[in-house]
Amino acid sequence: DAVQPERERLNACLVFPSMPAVMRLNKLGSFSMAQLGQSKSVISSFMKKKKQQGSGGFEEAMLKLVRTLPSVLKYLPSDKAQDARNFMLSLQYWLGGSADNLENFLLTIAKAYVPEASKLASVQIAEPVVFPDAGIWHPLAPAMYEDLKEYLNWYDTRKDMTFEKDAPVVGLVLQRTHLVTGDEAHYAATVMDLEARGAKVVPIFAGGLDFSGPVKKFYFDPLNKDKSYVDCVVSLTGFALVGGPARQDHPKAIETLKTLNVPYMVSLPLVFQTTEEWSDSSLGLHPVQVALQVALPELDGGLEPIIFSGRDSRTGKSHALHDRIESVCSRAIKWADLRKKQVKDKKVCITVFSFPPDKGNVGTAAYLNVFGSIYKVLKGLQDDGYDVGQLPETDKELMESVLNDTEARYNSEDLNVAYKMSVPEYKKLCLYQEALEENWGPAPGTLNTNGEDLLVFGKEFGNVFIGVQPTFGYEGDPMRLLFSKSASPHHGFAAYYTFVEHVFKADAVLHFGTHGSLEFMPGKQVGMSDGCYPDSLIGSIPNLYYYAANNPSEATIAKRRSYANTMSYLTPPAENAGLYKGLKELSELVGSYQGLKSSNRGIQIVNTIIDKAIQCNLDRDVNLPEVDAKDITEEERDTVVGSVYKKLIEIESRLLPCGLHVIGC
């Protein structure tokens, strides 16, 4: 509606790119996109043929058409062919995207279709500078590469950087538009940070929104196409692997990623907010971006939605958020190291909780036999070659060695102390500990401490540490931790994760069962900053999390706030609750009333039913008369007995879990 009225009076009308109906409004002189579907032109026939071959093939073929058709059309004498050539050149300039290409695009259109621009007749306009539609880019490379071998020949002969022979290789997925327009500072910063940490980098890009092709082309070993060359992939686009915000192909993306079989992280550039708006927001990432660039990539299996770049409020250009890039890169390398490290040398922390978080016994979780499951997992790790030390004979002995008391609570002296962290060591290793003093005073505080040292509860078995996550710290008012802006974890909580990362040096942490409190610590809802406690606590440790299958909402919180890779476990089978003791006797009385209500015993049975119902506390749910049954009508007696019977049926048919789930069984 906005373009059509203006189109009729113009010699040139160009719309790039848009919906098909809008693209048909393109015209240059005698050339019109609206006529393509009705004519037998070369372009029309080509587009109809390729449209039948599927979306991916059509997009690729269109790019080939843009490249080759202008060189053919320039040999055709007609004005229409020249106008068509100008259109294809314009599209090439536009897709090129660079400042020079866009300048030459405007010059080409003005020279051909603006009569007042006659002085441009003698101006020589350069041909479009063509960038690869897909390839490998590096900020220091002399060119973009369309072959992995050529890129590696340059990369491995660099004079400015040397890498270890077994250095981790991280693949980055980039948007081509940022590269051709020169808005790539945030990409360059990520590449440089990874390399400074000793990782090799293969940054790939694509012109469209289907990155599955470049992944298949550039991320497999040139000498063995069945083996992935990269150890971890980080998408910096914020999009699903296949498709943009409007349309995705998750099955295609999942198939590609399963074939590659490496960790896949999706980091985010700020799109709907400036850096200042995001930084000042307690919400964090804009809800629209959460839906489009967090939820959709999660359907592909994307992990860890960490923001890595901001948007300048004046220019709109992207800029690196260096502290966030450090987080992305350190975590990517940790994931990559898991593929490189020998199994016998890998160190794993298994973290157990108290469920509910502020009441239950240590080592429990929703619907899960925690220590029975841990024992199964340890046996599996042992079979796979992990060093699990000398395991106890049974899961009960395992539990007792960690807790020293099957009824242990957070304040119990019977918890096994795995490590005593001195206050000087804590202050040296925990960089955010000063921020906790506002709520908890100076370290060591009053929780998880003997008055001098901070205590880490748990026990080591070879290279596996089974640790007890400290309490909330706000047991009397747990909601304060969730909603108070000034709340924070206590020193003991911070010391636990400091020990896991910097003292035990875990390669990964496995949070065991639903659920702990790490993911509920104060901070933004999505899109953590370095001041958000879930981000600070988990540090650079890869986070694996067993979560009950019936609780996807809180599992999603764990994914987005504590960067967890969640694995669902089944809830146990359910059975009808049935009736017991007084309720069963009450049911028998109701049954006897049905046959004897017309006899002399009917009134006596109703009185007995009322008394028994009160004993079973059913008077809270059923309206029972306060007078003798003989003082109410038979219909009213039937109503009382019917109400009790209805409540008994409701209780009897309730579903209760039958036992606890054991992982590995």
Strand segment tally: 22
Summing up helix and strand content along with how strands pair, one would put the structural category as alpha/beta
Low-confidence stretches: 50-61
Oligomeric state of the chains in view:
single chain
Strand content: 5-15%
What do these coordinates show?
The radius of gyration is 34 Å and the shape is globular. The strands form six sheets. A seven-stranded mixed β-sheet has the order 15-16-17-14-18-19-20, with helices on both faces. It has 25 helices and 22 strands. Helix content is 41%, strand content 14%. The protein starts with a helix and ends in an 8-residue tail after the last strand.
Topology:
Elements: H1 4-7, E1 12-13, H2 20-23, E2 27-28, E3 31-32, H3 42-51, H4 55-73, H5 79-96, H6 99-113, E4 134-136, H7 148-155, E5 169-175, H8 176-180, H9 185-196, E6 200-206, H10 212-218, E7 220-221, E8 224-228, E9 232-235, H11 250-260, E10 264-266, E11 268-269, H12 275-280, H13 287-300, E12 307-311, E13 318-320, H14 322-340, E14 348-352, H15 370-383, H16 395-403, E15 417-421, H17 423-429, H18 437-440, E16 454-461, E17 464-468, H19 478-483, H20 491-503, E18 508-512, H21 533-538, E19 543-548, H22 552-561, E20 564-569, E21 574-576, H23 581-596, H24 602-615, H25 634-653, E22 655-657
Parallel strand pairs: 5-6, 5-9, 9-10, 11-12, 14-17, 14-18, 18-19, 19-20
Antiparallel strand pairs: 1-2, 2-3, 4-6, 7-8, 12-13, 15-16, 16-17, 21-22
